[in-house]
User: What shape does this take?
Amino acid sequence: MERSAQRLGRALIVIVDDRVAHGEHEDTVGPLVTELLEENGFIVDGTVAVAGEMVDIRNALNTAVIGGVDVVITVGGTGVSPRDVTPDATLGVLDRPIPGIAEAIRSSGLAAGAVDAGISRGLVGISGSTLVVNLAGSRSAVRDGMATLSALVPHVIDELSALD
Assistant: This one.
């Protein structure tokens, strides 16, 4: 069964940023991700900001999966610094990785000049029946990553919904 282009599914956004989580900085990326998801037919349940701590990230992802969203997008914490632990936390939540999508996001991001996307360790995979995607934190990486995802996510969600 084909899903309506207007109702592709439910999404949740997890911003991984210490300053945003502690109210020291305004979230400027969450609204962008929300806009791009809604343009692609998703209903966005909300945006959650968490500190760059493994347990906080894992808890946010598990809450999204248990809540039954179709896709959860994390933004930030995918680089190579010691505080960038989003992929490590995500790995503990995934049932099955989808490395091809993660590589496509890195490749297109680097080609578009988003250096943080090119060096991102971000993962993409399935947890339960939820697609989990890690994006690098810059606005350019988010824009490019979402453009790459727009062609792929509907197919993944259709495959997952066939299991229901």
Summary: The beta strands are 9-16, 42-50, 71-75, 96-97, 124-127, 130-135.
